[in-house]
Write a structure and sequence with these properties.
CATH architecture of the largest domain: 3-Layer(aba) Sandwich
Oligomer: single chain
Number of strands: 14
Number of helices: 10
Strand content: 25-35%
CATH superfamily of the largest domain: P-loop containing nucleotide triphosphate hydrolases
CATH class of the largest domain: Alpha Beta
Bound molecules: adenosine-5'-triphosphate, magnesium ion
Strand order of the largest sheet: 6-7-8-3-9-10
Radius of gyration: 23 Å
CATH topology of the largest domain: Rossmann fold
Number of domains: 2
């Protein structure tokens, strides 16, 4: 891609005391891309987003948005960016409409016709007081305020939280239109199925470390495949362990199930030493790949998926 990046995160590190929330993370997002930022709870997604928007200061490294430095040009960046925070706080006594009018006046340059269109597409109700909304309806107000000034860059922290499936579909259509218009979308998520539906590029973060940045199409190509082999008689699992490209062998009676990457040949050559009755192979979907990242997280935390630091003393 030739255009200069819309968002650049360059060796970003954020420490709270001796706890490292984000550790030497770098990536780039280009105009027209939808970037999915995936990771379990406490992985460092919101921390990275806050550093990009200068809501917290990095311990080391730098972020740039539209070529502007997050620390020195935050006002300009905020003007040209739409942001949906994960913990959106609004005024409970204002109606949805009053909230959006207030925010639109602060920003300036909002076309109210577009607000009406967003309201209709997301099936939002602007007449109620924000304090009386269901969580999904409150989230819609958050999405509308992020989109309403047609910003060049959208940064959305878990945007589909609370949205029902039909509204999610419409929201994803909106994201695709936004990217097709050459604007940039950064969204964080817990679910690969969401990211798989919309993102062009995906990054996995775990325990503050960026463990992979992939084009979605490459990731789909790399998906592991699963093979099920039926034998005439039970076979010892050891026969398949250590075979090139083979993972997760399980045996139940005369049925052997394994996951493999790349060529099936090494696995088949071992299998055919026994009396094979049938072979079936299927693609493992990305959900399972992502769950493996989660499982590693659980194992690394000694069985506890949370990695909240035990001290809460340092602040941003
Ligand atoms: N102000 C703070 N002081 C101390 N630790 C913090 C602070 N803010 C975040 N952390 C810690 O940094 C880690 C990363 O938090 P972050 O909010 O970025 O995670 P996340 O990936 O957004 O998770 P979630 O999916 O739950 O939203 C967590 O362990 C969190 O407790
Ligand atoms: Mg978060």
């Amino acid at each position: 891609m030739t255009a200069s990046p819309s968002i650049e995160v360059d060796r970003l590190t954020k420490r709270y005391g001796d706890f490292t929330a984000v550790d030497d993370v770098s990536f780039e997002i280009h105009p027209g891309e939808i970037f999915g930022f995936l990771g379990p709870n406490g992985a460092g997604k919101s921390t990275t987003i806050r550093a990009i928007l200068d809501l917290i200061r990095p311990t080391a490294g730098a972020c740039r948005v539209l070529g502007l430095d997050s620390r020195t040009d935050a006002v300009e960046i905020h003007r040209r960016t739409g942001f949906l925070p994960a913990d959106l706080a609004l005024w409970p006594n204002l109606t949805g409409k009053q909230t959006l009018q207030y925010l639109a006046n602060l920003r300036g340059g909002v076309d109210w016709g577009f607000v009406d269109e967003l309201t209709q597409r997301l099936d939002a109700d602007l007449s109620k007081k924000v304090g009386e909304y269901s969580s999904g309806n409150r989230q819609k107000i958050g999405i509308i305020q992020a989109f309403m000034h047609m910003p060049e860059v959208l940064i959305l922290d878990e945007p589909i939280t609370g949205l029902d499936p039909l509204v999610q579909l419409e929201f994803h259509t909106l994201l695709r239109e936004t990217a097709q218009a050459g604007r940039t979308v950064f969204l964080s998520s817990h679910t690969i199925s969401e990211v798989e539906r919309v993102a062009d590029k995906v990054a996995f973060i775990r325990r503050g470390h960026l463990i992979a940045v992939e084009q979605m199409s490459d990731l789909q190509d790399k998906a592991l495949r699963r093979i099920t082999l039926e034998f005439a008689a039970p076979v010892a699992p050891e026969a398949f362990r250590g075979v090139e490209g083979v993972h997760e062998v399980s045996v139940e009676g005369a049925t052997v199930t394994a996951q493999y990457e790349g060529s099936m040949a090494p696995l088949l050559s071992v299998a055919t030493r026994h009396d094979v009755v049938s072979v079936a192979s299927a693609s493992v979907d990305l959900d399972e790949i992502f769950l493996e990242f989660y499982r590693d997280e659980v194992a690394a935390a000694g069985g506890d998926p949370s990695r909240e630091p035990d001290t809460s003393s340092p602040v941003a």
